[in-house]
Input
Amino acid sequence: MSLSIAHLGPTGTYAEAAALAYSQWLTQETGQQSFLCSYPSIAQTLQAVANGEASLGVVPIENSLEGSVTMTMDALWRLDNLQIQQSLILPIAHALLSCAEDLTLIRTIYSHPQALAQCQGWIDKFLPSAQLVPTNATTEALQHLEQDKTSGAIASQRAAQLYNLPILACPINDYPDNHTRFLVVSLNPSSSGSHTSLAFSVPANVPGALAKLLHIFASRNINLSRIESRPTKRSLGEYLFFIDIEANANVPSIQSALTELKLHTETLKIFGSYPILPINSNNQDKTERDTLNEETFQ
Amino acid sequence: MSLSIAHLGPTGTYAEAAALAYSQWLTQETGQQSFLCSYPSIAQTLQAVANGEASLGVVPIENSLEGSVTMTMDALWRLDNLQIQQSLILPIAHALLSCAEDLTLIRTIYSHPQALAQCQGWIDKFLPSAQLVPTNATTEALQHLEQDKTSGAIASQRAAQLYNLPILACPINDYPDNHTRFLVVSLNPSSSGSHTSLAFSVPANVPGALAKLLHIFASRNINLSRIESRPTKRSLGEYLFFIDIEANANVPSIQSALTELKLHTETLKIFGSYPILPINSNNQDKTERDTLNEETFQ
Output
């Protein structure tokens, strides 16, 4: 039976590229066939998995420049029953797509505000007088290109392939280290792997509550590889904490920390222990580049 | 001499309402006159203060539903020389603005995606078949209303006043507790007040570094009222930590914690000690309501 993999759409987004990479890995490693289903938001992607409408979901959790993806954290907390099966990291390379014959003809650049911000230095250098127009999705920017040959759009190399649009320059992001980490989630319990994720709320108005909880980990020399807070949405200044631990939840020191944590938290949710997927992102990136328009400007 | 207060524009945004409330408080409390200058982004607002182009800046730092405003944190870290003078909390009440005679005539609702998301429950109940159209700023939504009497926009009550547009319903946000906390920053050193904010980066690849740093606070029973991480933008998995402490930096236990912290962090930045401004947001909200269009639907 082929598995359905939910992801944020439309085609050409980085989330679809991550789901595709995961689907290919799944076939290679286990022989399992799968197909992708796109959803209009991260919340709807995770809801589809929680409902059993999709077998797996692939969602972004953090980017090396933008930080945490808060929609993913809020939905994981709210939906309650999702478990993290794997984590995978994908490089993000922004490209300038345009039907213009060369860079000097470009007057307007369309893209998602985050993509525009991530390429600001390159734009200032090569297209300082171009007008920047924010769009809601990276791929929404593409619809302007064919009608207006003085316009460009910042999108992925995969979007250029899918929509058959020329790449004038790539990569154009200012920080070379631009990666997004994705989570693969499902309803299956997950307990094997080197990383554990959890989240908790603390009783309101207990002074020192956070310090006490962090001490549970510090006193056992447990390193937290990530700590993030999110608002409880009840009152300003009340937070949920999301923590990643570089260890399996069955390790005795972690088990004892989790037992103690349960006594001092209001709600504790454990999203499972999971491996970091050995997807060789450089190879994948290289293959994508090789099949791309040769006008690529390095 | 009148002081200039930088804020994110255009007129009608919640950031302008916060700057206005601060300006009024300043006149009442100190007799100091001030005027507002709007900037197109949070980064440019803070840059203007860092350059000495504006005397003060008012920027959002966290919202009770959406969490931290990452642009503010990134700019505070990058600009280096800004100090927090005050913190103030403003209620956020979304209103449905429209030239339609009544709710049943509305076919399309324009607003910023966050505002649309925060009113989703209300929309599902009262306008379930309306088409939702995201815009880049809450106020950008307003330009559609006069031409198209079947359209509505979600914006602030102040925007309704400024653009002279009728309010059909208010408040329409699903969570009644919707507040945004703003910071007032300047180049002046700040050392008086009950709250201290700081941020630090930790040396890369030192296992247990975060646990050790948190232990510095926990072992002194110092409660952290907020902890947030941001990516360093160097490499995925490397973070800066932003911490708020409910105490003045001159309290001996905090001084000793900061001295120890300095030894174990790569870079430590202290944004000052400051008070929470006693702006009575309910009164301010009431005054605004009283002067508003009477069609308000409660």
